[in-house]
Amino acid sequence: MSKSITFPGGRLAQALLICSLAANVNPTPSIAQTTPAAGFSTRADLNPLLAPWAGPYGGVPAFDKVQVSQFKPALEAAMAQNLAEVQAIADDKKAPTFENTIAALERAGHALDQVQTVYGVWTGTMNNPEVQAVQREMAPRMAAFGDQITQNGPLFRRIETVYNSPDKKKLTPEQQRLTWVYYNNFVRSGAKLDAKAKTRLSEINQQLAGLFTRFSQNVLADETDSVLVLKTPADLGGLPQSLRDDAANAAAARKLTAAGVITNTRSSIDPFLTYSDQRKLREKAWRMFVNRGDNGGEHDNNALITDILQLRAERAKLLGYPTHAHLRLDNTMAKTPEKAMALMEEVWTPAVARAKEEVADMQTLAKKEGATFKIEPWDYRYYGEKVRKARYDLDQNEVKQYLQLDKMREGMFWVAGELLGFTFTPVTNAPVYHPDVKVWEVKDKTTGKHVGLWYFDPYARPGKRSGAWMNAYRNQERMDGEVTTIVSNNSNFVKGKDGAPTLISWTDATTLFHEFGHALHGLSSNVTYPSLAGTSVVRDYVEFPSQLMENWLPTPQVLQRFAVHYQTGKPIPQALVDRIEKASTFNQGFETTEFLASALIDMKLHLAGAQKIDPDKFERETLTQLGMPSELVMRHRTPQFSHVFSSDGYSAGYYSYLWSVVLAADAFGAFTEAGGPYDKAVAKRLKDKIFSVGNTVDPAEAYRSFRGRDPKIDALMRERGFPMKDAKASKPADKKATGKKS
């Protein structure tokens, strides 16, 4: 989720955790020392970011009124107000209760939540030097702000009193869960440390915030500034017409006189590596992409990674954990790094074996064509596609002619209607931050009741981080009346020229459905408290609904209706669908190995403790020890691994995609064992037991209530065509699990 910037812990906890996504290098005095709380309401008149969201649908972000110069004062004022709200709770003379402490904290920080939402949109999708300057200044201050709350002794004592009170049994199950979330988050944030340790912890958090921002900005600089210029028509050799057009459009957008330009994003690089018959140019494109953050000079990330790892190790020790990995996994389904490692190692061996088989097939084909070289990483996709075409008579470019972005989006809407009872209607009365962004109103198709809004930002552009992800602009809740959610999906597709349809690959279409799964998780939320809403669940569970949603793309109901040729309008031929199905396990060695390599490096880096690490050396030596095939590379090399080093988000947690895909494969089995992918009874159970409950229920219990048992790894291994050890064939996946990549 990549994907999502929502976290366990509602308005206050979301504010505490989201601050770690920003950054700066030079820690400054805390907000409480520099900005008074007084004057907030009057400043709202001067700064639109401080005004409550107004307009239809319960209010919408005023994206059309944002100026970058407003971010710093708005963040300062909103944090000051939040600190005042929190201090009032801490100073309450009445005995602590759920209502005057936990519920009061849920209501605090509303203004800050709205400011940070808009700020997050700009840092993720509209980033420029002016925004980056704000990030560098504000990140450590925001980290210090978060620590001021979690290190507030009187406040924590009130939370602890409610948590330990016999009266807690009288609370509703959701209230008990919320109380546990607050108590657990505060303890894990150092609330029980002594004064000296708290001071050091805050220093670490501020330093990390600065390093995270520098890391992100370095990767963005390499993605923005580096392009592969295709100078002559010969440089376009092998590319289908749609990719030639994309390259020409990219050159025109950059005002370059050239046959085309390949930008430094996956959605541009991967197709080029798949089809270009210019081997030297493939190598240049590959090196440009995999060396982001690893080129020396001012944008090199290696020294930053070393510092981040050292600080994380020190912080874990302060909090009483052996390593950062143990700290991060303590509050997950896996519980321990050992369980996550056991799963990855079980899948690693068959994945590598399959990758070696794939390479052998490519080498044989290349030799038949007269090639005298050994397959290299920049050859893998090119010859893999040739093998796919030879073995299955399946050309990805042929499939792409039937995958129009707009039609795939309509297909997602249709699936959401069939499974969850949603309708999507485009609206124009919600401001957007860029002309490419479109908005839909989501309703219950039976009652017509408004459910929420869905924003879609599909195209790549300078200043937008690469990848695909989901955001929650506003969580669903009903503490003081019904509040509906606002969610978004973000991608980096190459925009078609002059209104021409944007054609996407099968992999891109799968990612589109994946991210939409996160959005549906948020839209389905039906809880009382915002901290527990939607995607506010543990990291190795949050990818489950999104991984699950990928299963509906290849269903005949979607393909026959929405996979139509961009020129003729005819549906995809059944013969082609059959070939797609037959090739479904093709290249799974590559897909799984490149993902697992990143996940294993992530975990091993964070299990190394206080060891001072040279990232490039560690990556190289660890991959050698693992037996990584030389013909492919990690999906995310360490110097550009933003999941792990642009925040604490997926640190020691990239394995969670694997864990979640075990859940997803097993859960889809509930449909296939019943009436098929659109079985109404199973779909209702999915919505009631998984999609709507957020974090109100322990995830393992939620899964059991849906499936009737713990998950098993069997379905995942079958799905990928990997052999299973008989003795382990029915082992519950709560001791393991498996995932796709982002």
Automatic annotation (TrEMBL):
Gene3D superfamilies documented for this protein: Collagenase (Catalytic Domain), Neurolysin, domain 3
Domain of life from the UniProt record: Bacteria
Cofactor, how bound (note): Binds 1 zinc ion.
GO cellular component: cytosol
InterPro entries: M3A_DCP, MetalloPept_cat_dom_sf, Neurolysin/TOP_dom2, Pept_M3A_M3B, Pept_M3A_M3B_dom
Pfam families found in the cross-reference section: Peptidase_M3
Signal peptide limits: 1-32
Domain Peptidase M3A/M3B catalytic: 272-721
SUPFAM superfamilies: Metalloproteases ('zincins'), catalytic domain (SSF55486)
GO biological process annotation, one example: proteolysis
Cofactor: Zn(2+)
Similarity annotation: Belongs to the peptidase M3 family.
Protein name (Swiss-Prot/TrEMBL): M3 family metallopeptidase
Organism: Hymenobacter jejuensis
